[in-house]
Each structure stands twice: as C-alpha cells, then as structure tokens.
Predict the structure.
Amino acid sequence: MDTQTQKFKIRLGLFIAGGITLFVLAVFIIGKQKNLFDPVFKITATFYNVSGLQVGNNVRFSGVTVGTVDNIKIINDSTVEVVMLIKKSVNPFIKTDCEVAIGSEGLIGDKLIVISQGSGTAAIVKDGQKLESSEPVETDAIMASLQVTAGNAEIVTKELSEIMYKINNGNGTLGRLIQDPTIANNISESISNIKKSSQGLSENMEAAKGNFLLRGYYKKKAKAAEKKAAEKKAAEKKAAEQKQ
C-alpha cells in the first residue's frame, strides 16, 4: 500500500512539474510575441475603417514584425484610433513622415499594420506620437470592380464573336474582301500594276540619266556623293589615328 502511495505521489509531482513547465513556456512565448518582455513605445494612427483589424495583430516595418496592435478605440462615427506597441530598438528608424496602412497576410490572411519608410531628413517619432494613415481598400470594393471588369469583358467578347461571324459569312467590307475571290483578284492585279509602274519609272530614270540635257545634273550629283563619302572616310581615319 505504501509503495502504491509513493508511486502516485511521484506521478502527481511529475504531472504538476510538467504543467508548470508548459505554463511558463506558454507565458514566455506569448509574452515574446506580444512584446511583454521587451522595452516598447507607443504610436497611434486614426482610420475611417479598420477593415477587421484586431488587438494583438502584428505591426510590420520594412517587412519585419516590430510590434503589435495594443488597442482599437472608436473616437466618433467617422474615426477609429489604433494604438500600437513598437519595439524600442526600432525607434531610430521610424520617422515622423512614415505612413501607417492596414494590410493582410496574403489574400485571406489576418489583418496587420504596415508602416512605410520615412525620409532620412525627418525627425524620429516620439512615444505616443500620431502618424499619418492611408485608408485600406475594401475587399468588397475590389470584388465589385472585378465584376464590372468581367461584365465589360463579356460584352467585348460577344461583340468580337458577332464581328467574326459576319466576316466568316462574307458580310461587311472586310468579310467581302476575305470571302469574295473577285475582290482578292482585283487587289492582286492592282499590286501587279503598281509593280509594273515602278519598274517603268526606274527605266525612265535610267534613260533620263543618258539625256545630254540632264547628264550634267547627274554628274554633279554623283561627284557630290563621292566627295561626301571621301570626307566621311577621312574623318573616320583621323578619329582612329587620334585614338591610337
């Protein structure tokens, strides 16, 4: 009987010790996440709508978690004040012209506070100071915009389908141009005539060069072209010598 009592006491002691250890670890982990053991300072910001932000959500600066949301308080019917606890070690990097915005962990994750970087010339923010904020974009507004875009895309797709149907059936100018072989043949003949006209023009120009009335003009033009080419070649040669 005494042996069983002794074993029970040992088990009870181990159970209590394990429970206390787990409790201490939980307090330490939660306290570390909530910055209970680190020196902190407060900053505030006001929003028209916090979009589901809750006390305890993270605060990030340059992509790094630097604090948590300490309190959310409704000031009036159009203003909500958010109080943030920020690690004291980050204080030198948060300036008075930093801007506070509400973001989220991915598309459907928890809300969080995002502090943008300020300028290097601005003063360092003080404990309890208020920063400027930008209102978050509501998910409902995004969905409404996407619905409008989808509706417009549907209309455009329908109109393109109607246009292609008309073209395939030979309706309209473009449809007749594609489907009617007579029009296609006429266009081919017109292109052929243009080519013949260009060839004839080239032949006339060559004949004009042999005409004694225009021979001097073409000679002067050829000499000017040769002179220009020679000057260009001399300039390139001079530039090459200077580089050497």
Q: What stands out?
A: Residues 2-33 form the longest helix (32 residues). The two ends are 109 Å apart (CA to CA). The mean pLDDT is 77.
